[in-house]
Amino acid sequence: MSPVVLCGRAVDPQWVDRVREEYAMSISKKAKGVAKTAEGKTKETAGKITGNKDLELKGKAEKTQGRARKTVEKGKDLLEP
Question: Which of 10, 28, 34, 54 has a CB 3.0–4.6 Å from the CB of 3, allowing a cystine?
């Protein structure tokens, strides 16, 4: 394989493929965090409407888990070179 030119520098194509793969995985994990947050918000709202405290608390917990997952993935992005 010939080198890929990136910002005026030749880089290894395998490195480029690895970076793309890691970026795609990061996006996927962030999306899971957003989905978990939305699911938790839905359960929390349903619990409030129906007066079901258990469902409301479970929704709050899921919402917090989703936010935490998303924050962890953002942190990983900042720490990676």
Answer: 10
Is pLDDT above 70 for 3? no
What is the rounded CA–CA span in Å between residue 12 and residue 65? 38
% of the chain beyond a pLDDT of 90: 41
Q: Any idea which residue has 């990061």 for tokens?
A: 26
Instruction: Quote the mean pLDDT of the chain.
Output: 82
Residue type, 28: S
Backbone angles phi, psi at 3, to 5 degrees: -65, 150
CA distance 59 to 54: 9
